[in-house]
Request: fold
Amino acid sequence: MHDSIQQLSAYLTALVPERPLELQEMEAYAKEHRFPIIGPAAGQFCLQIARMVGAQRIFELGSGYGYSTAWFARAVRENGGGTVFHVVWDEDLSQKARGHLRVLGYDDLIEYRVAEAVEALRETEGSFDLVFNDIDKEGYPDSWPVIAEKVRPGGVVITDNMFFGGTVFDRGNREETTEGVREFTRLVSGDPDWISLIVPIRDGLMVSFKR
Ligand SMILES: C[S@@+](CC[C@H](N)C(=O)[O-])C[C@H]1O[C@@H](n2cnc3c(N)ncnc32)[C@H](O)[C@@H]1O
Reply:
């Protein structure tokens, strides 16, 4: 990462209030095992957005071992209660998440699904206040119509990795993952039913508001 970006990232992270020990341990695990969690600054931002739209029904696509889920669960709790769907296709990560989120005291708020996330969203009844998208990047374009349909007017979609490690700026990079992020960016930015912008926290979070 470029020096000034690293400096900015460290500055934003230092502004995030102290987290519970369990969350700090999840952060340490990600660092040690190079597992791509959203991290504290993006977590704080997700909490803020979820609180601002009063989210009580949240669907996560690509939840890992529950780090991002913990931030959304906190928002839902502070919004008066509700449900966060933790969805990942790895059974072991789902089990790990159950452990962490139980310790954090969010067990009663979480619905677990071990499944392909877009299919799980398609099959889940009802609409959502907020959808968080963090699946494999080649799957981003096909996820959009399903997500767009499931979010209520006035609801929000947050999508991670919109810079994809800076590869989206490299015109020579034609990898399926990078192209997936580019195509998703074009689709969402050009959708007249949504107001969207990429916020340059960590790897780029796109925030999309449904008119
Ligand atoms: C980037 S990690 C999730 C990190 C998590 N959002 C966090 O910040 O704590 C993405 C996870 O979702 C899984 N995944 C990727 N694409 C998926 C899909 N289409 N359906 C279900 N799980 C998926 C990956 O195997 C991985 O475990």
